[in-house]
Amino acid sequence: MTYFIIIISAIFVNNIVLSQFLGICPFLGVSKKISTGIGMTGAVTFVMVIATIVTYFIQEFILEKFGITYLQTISFILVIAALVQLVEIVLKKVSPPLYQALGVFLPLITTNCAILGVAIMTVSRDYNLIEAVIFSASSAVGFGLALITFAGIREQLDLVNVPKGMQGAPIALVVAGLLAMAFMGFAGLV
Amino acid sequence: MNQWKNFSKGFFKDNPVFVMLLGMCPTLGVTSSAINGLGMGLATTFVLVMSNIVVALVKDFIPEKVRIPSFIVIIASFVTVVEMVMQAYLPALFEALGLFIPLIVVNCLVLGRAEAFASKNTLGSSVVDGLGMGLGFSMALTMLGAVRELFGSGKIFGLSLFSESYGMLIFVLAPGAFIALGYLTAFINKVRKA
């Protein structure tokens, strides 16, 4: 039951993009087409789950054991940066088709605050390993849901006549606001 | 280079929030009130100036290939400093900003200035650039925070202007952040071009 609550909460109620404001840069940057949105979601899911598992072990067995939790920010971001590089190299070798699909998005992920944010949240909420995996995976699903829905709306938005001053970023932000309002309907679900 | 131009570009011409759309996560996440926006802006300014200084000083010693990880370590060190100082002296602000303080590390504005400016320019210009960009960022966050606070609860910096019961709660909540920033961006762009 706890797992179920974690999943629903991470995907809908506390959606990582629309209510936690993490990962806004890719949310606004790569949401012009649905296909790129799907690619980005795949890459984020992949890295987010692995990064959360690795940072979980680092927190548990290195930082807490030696009482150096103040090094959390530095160690986590370094691990994530190295991990992204590693994933890129491994994918290139092991699965060229997957690398083709996710490749361009991987370098962008180091500075995606959703990855670091989820890693820190996992630690600060004292999740165990299974909960951490479930939480990170469903956060990634929530990110994908928001990103792909938003990309779909923006594809439609290209066809309408937007007032001159609102073109580009302003109209995208207002649309994102309306989408966030729709997601607020899930509040109180868990 | 003209230092005044270098300083002032962060406010209007190349404002990090309204024009370059950098650092959107903290911009939207912490601006439920003007004071939170200002606090976040100043914390980011500190990190930005300090990392610009260090990057400008060590740029000749860092091999090209590992420059991004090195910049991230430099930035992360200053973020840790900010985190500890704030926790010790401003615990209320520390609580309010929460997760977004460690996330200054991945603020694309900070890394962006280190990579695009400080790694190519002299120490003096880098300090001025960091100050200008940081204060421009603070200005944008404070403006957004003030707008949301005013419409949401009828206050600015905690000073009550009209009764809270007339406030529109939506501006304090998540959707209001996007909508307020959207209209504010449109407004600033209009002013900038005029």
Automatic annotation (TrEMBL), chain A:
- The UniProt transmembrane annotation reads 6-30, 37-58, 70-91, 98-123, 129-150, 171-189
* Topology in the lipid bilayer: Multi-pass membrane protein
The record's subcellular locations are:
Cell membrane; Endomembrane system
Quick one: a GO biological-process term for this protein?
A: electron transport chain
Q: Which InterPro entries match?
A: Ion_transpt_RnfA/RsxA, NqrDE/RnfAE, NqrDE/RnfAE_oxidrdctase
Q: Name one GO cellular component term.
A: endomembrane system
Record keyword Cell membrane present: yes
Respond yes or no to whether keyword Electron transport is given for this record.
yes
Which Pfam families does the UniProt record give?
A: Rnf-Nqr
Q: Which UniProt keywords apply?
A: Cell membrane, Electron transport, Membrane, Translocase, Transmembrane, Transmembrane helix, Transport
Q: What is its EC number?
A: 7.-.-.-
Q: Which family does it belong to?
A: Belongs to the NqrDE/RnfAE family.
NCBIfam families given for it?
PRK05151.1, rnfA
What is this protein for, i.e. what is its function? Part of a membrane-bound complex that couples electron transfer with translocation of ions across the membrane.
Subunit architecture? The complex is composed of six subunits: RnfA, RnfB, RnfC, RnfD, RnfE and RnfG.
Name recorded for this polypeptide? Ion-translocating oxidoreductase complex subunit A
From TrEMBL, chain B:
Q: Which residues cross the membrane?
A: 39-58, 70-90, 96-114, 126-146, 166-188
Q: What is this protein called?
A: Ion-translocating oxidoreductase complex subunit E
Give the species this sequence originates from. Marinilabilia rubra
Q: Which InterPro entries match?
A: NqrDE/RnfAE, RnfE
Spell out the family assignment given in the record's similarity comment: Belongs to the NqrDE/RnfAE family.
What processes in GO biological process is this protein linked to?
A: electron transport chain
Compartments, as annotated in UniProt = Cell membrane; Endomembrane system
Q: Which domain of life is it from?
A: Bacteria
Main localization is membrane
This protein's assembly is summarised as: The complex is composed of six subunits: RnfA, RnfB, RnfC, RnfD, RnfE and RnfG.
State the gene name recorded for this protein.
Answer: rnfE
- Keywords noted in UniProt: Cell membrane, Electron transport, Membrane, Translocase, Transmembrane, Transmembrane helix, Transport
